[in-house]
């Protein structure tokens, strides 16, 4: 009589590895003189991930970006980068750890050509020998800059200047890129090119924190989102659910405003 072979033990499913946070804001508060701008802000940006930071004008988005890159000091809370406490570090020391910040505006040298802007930035990062390869990566990511490479930075369009600002980080991509209001004042077709270039930066292995008012643009490339309101985090979650969360927040605000107006208009007995 032939014995039955022992049954194979069930194979347990392998859980996906948790993505390690690269940037962590924990209970962050910040002020401009006597004006309190941020209140207990906490969220994370994972390695190689894209997080959209959303909110209306005055919500505190740009302040979060400046705090994370060391341009604005904290009044409370902690900031960690790659597991290390960087709270209170000067901006240049945070940059040396691998954080690049492209602020709102253009950020290019107006009296230098596109080639000269890139060469100056790339020499500082990769040395003279690495400039040619870095320029090739920049023009591949932003092909619209090729035709104007000998044009002065100050004569470029707003979209071209934004592309040039981003292209300058491609010599030695940072571990974290913080970009503030990429689409500000740009035509839709130009925004497409800017965001395509941003994805090229992400594909180089860089995590990105996108500060943006054009919600659809940011959510189209982000995995997760953080919604700010009046300097505080009102919601965090998957990018696919962010639009509904924003609509709910706006609806609740409209209802609260209507109730306040109604209460203010009542007369006494």
Topology:
Blueprint: E1 21-32, E2 35-46, E3 50-54, H1 61-68, E4 76-81, E5 84-85, H2 91-96, E6 99-102, H3 114-126, H4 131-141, H5 158-167, E7 176-180, H6 188-203, E8 207-211, H7 215-221, E9 224-229, E10 232-238, H8 242-264
Parallel strand pairs: 3-8, 3-9, 6-7, 7-8
Antiparallel strand pairs: 1-2, 1-4, 4-5, 9-10
Helix pairs in contact: 3-4, 5-6
Write up what this structure looks like:
- The structure is a single chain.
- The chain has one domain (41-259): Rossmann fold (3-Layer(aba) Sandwich).
- Helix content is 35%, strand content 24%.
- The chain contains 8 helices and 10 strands.
- It has helices spanning 61-68, 91-96, 114-126, 131-141, 158-167, 188-203, 215-221, 242-264; strands spanning 21-32, 35-46, 50-54, 76-81, 84-85, 99-102, 176-180, 207-211, 224-229, 232-238.
- Strands 6-7-8-3-9-10 form a 6-stranded mixed sheet, with helices on both faces. A 4-stranded antiparallel sheet has the order 2-1-4-5, with helices on one face.
- Helix 6 (188-203) links the parallel strand 7 (176-180) and strand 8.
- Helix 3 packs across helix 4 (131-141).
- The termini are far apart.
**Number of beta-strand segments:** 10
Helix content: 25-40%
Structural Rg: 23 Å
CATH superfamily: P-loop containing nucleotide triphosphate hydrolases
- CATH class value: Alpha Beta
Secondary-structure content class: alpha/beta
The main sheet orders its strands as 6-7-8-3-9-10
pLDDT < 50 stretches: 12-16
Predict the CATH topology.
Rossmann fold
The CATH architecture comes to: 3-Layer(aba) Sandwich
User: What is the approximate shape?
Assistant: globular
Please tell me the total number of domains: 1
Task: Let me know the average pLDDT.
Answer: 86
How large a portion of the residues is in β-strands, by DSSP E? Answer: 15-25%
